[in-house]
């Protein structure tokens, strides 16, 4: 296995996440896309930590752990907002939530 | 590259991750997408194991599969009627999104293939000691103490904020 194997997997995950965010018309599907993007980031951190630094330096893994924590906080707030929007509008399609639109 | 059992398992995990991620973004039924996401998260945890990041792999399974995925499923159940289980996609958006994503993927792959510093870095196969103890040292008794405290406060804020936003409003 080389570093590039991991980077290619991570690039594919990132692109699929972007694709989901761009095309899906459902807030929860968009959240899944964001999770894919965050996963690809964390994978990159761990891979660079393994290949580009001396073996006893594991700072990259710790950054990835912080990334997981941030993803958890983000998901909780995201779903709370989705619930509030659903209660207000009866739908979670992002293009129907346009109260601020002039 | 010789064809060993280790390589075979690595490619298995890689294929599992990529294929299920593809399902996450293409399947129309949102519950099926959530379960594909579970397979993707397990695949990434397997890749962490190949990177000798045992603690990270365990955290990935516990927090993502045990926490975030359950949260997503609850979100699906509480917001989708029977009609909204299918994700609506518009064709023009699909085309544009596909073009943008493909261009991005091409760019990323070109960069990955051509950056000299990233070439020929093979895994030397050295087995690291379990990382849990060192991670604990670095977080609680080292340079990551401040970020750790900041993140714990952030988690508390997110928890309170989520509870506040999603509660039913009481009107007098």
Shape of chain B: globular
Per DSSP E runs of 2 or more residues, the count of β-strands of chain A stands at 0
Looking at this structure, what is the CATH superfamily of the largest domain in chain B?
NADH-ubiquinone/plastoquinone oxidoreductase chain 6, subunit NuoJ
Q: Characterize the largest beta sheet of chain A: strand count, sense, and whether it forms a barrel.
A: none
Name the biggest interface: A-B, 71 and 84 residues
Please tell me the CATH architecture of the largest domain in chain B by its name. Up-down Bundle
**What count of helical segments of chain A does DSSP give?**
3
Structural class of chain B: mainly alpha
| Strand percentage of chain B | under 5%
Distance between the termini of chain B: 71 Å
- CATH fold-level label of the largest domain in chain B: Four Helix Bundle (Hemerythrin (Met), subunit A)
What ranges of chain A have pLDDT less than 50 throughout 5 or more consecutive residues?
A: none
How are the SSEs ordered, and which strands pair?
The complex is a heterodimer of chains A (102) and B (172).
Chain A: H1 3-23, H2 27-51, H3 59-89
Helix pairs in contact in A: 1-2, 2-3
Chain B: H1 5-26, H2 30-50, H3 54-79, H4 91-114, H5 132-140, H6 145-166
Written description of the protein model:
- The complex is a heterodimer of chains A (about 100) and B (about 170).
- Chain A is mainly α and about 100 residues long.
- Chain A has helices at about 5-25, 25-50, 60-90.
- The longest helix of chain A has about 30 residues, at about 60-90.
- Chain A starts with a helix and ends in a 13-residue tail after the last helix.
- Chain B is mainly alpha-helical.
- Chain B has two domains: about 1-90, Four Helix Bundle (Hemerythrin (Met), subunit A), CATH 1.20.120; about 130-170.
- Helices cover about 70% and strands about 0% of the residues of chain B.
- Chain B contains six helices and no strands.
- In chain B, helix 1 runs antiparallel to helix 2.
- Classes of the chains: A mainly alpha (about 100), B mainly alpha (about 170).
- Chains A and B meet through helix 1, helix 2 and helix 3 of A and helix 1, helix 2, helix 3, helix 4 and helix 5 of B.
């Amino acid at each position: 296995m080389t570093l590039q194997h991991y980077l290619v997997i991570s690039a594919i995950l990132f692109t699929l996440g972007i694709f989901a965010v761009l095309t899906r018309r459902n807030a929860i599907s968009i959240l899944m896309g964001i999770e894919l993007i965050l996963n690809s980031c964390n994978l990159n951190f761990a891979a660079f930590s393994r290949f580009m630094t001396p073996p006893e330096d594991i700072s990259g893994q710790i950054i990835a752990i912080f990334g997981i924590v941030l993803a958890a906080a983000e998901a909780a707030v995201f779903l709370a907002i989705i619930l509030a929007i659903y209660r207000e509008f009866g739908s979670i399609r992002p293009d129907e939530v346009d109260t601020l639109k002039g | 590259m010789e064809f060993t059992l280790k390589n075979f398992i690595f490619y298995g995990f890689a294929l599992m991750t990529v294929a299920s991620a593809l399902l996450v973004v293409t399947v129309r039924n949102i519950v099926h997408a959530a379960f594909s996401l579970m397979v993707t998260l397990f695949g990434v945890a397997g890749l962490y194991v190949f990177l000798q990041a045992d603690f990270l792999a365990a955290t990935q399974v516990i927090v993502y599969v045990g926490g975030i995925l359950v949260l997503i499923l609850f979100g699906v159940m509480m917001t989708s009627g029977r009609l909204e289980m299918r994700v609506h996609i518009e064709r023009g958006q699909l085309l544009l999104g596909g073009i943008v994503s493909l261009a991005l993927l091409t760019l990323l792959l070109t960069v990955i293939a051509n950056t000299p510093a990233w070439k020929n870095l093979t895994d030397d196969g050295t087995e690291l000691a379990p990382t849990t103890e060192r991670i604990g040292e670095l977080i609680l008794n080292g340079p990551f103490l401040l970020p750790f405290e900041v993140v714990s406060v952030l988690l508390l804020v997110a928890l309170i904020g989520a509870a506040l936003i999603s509660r039913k409003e009481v009107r007098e």
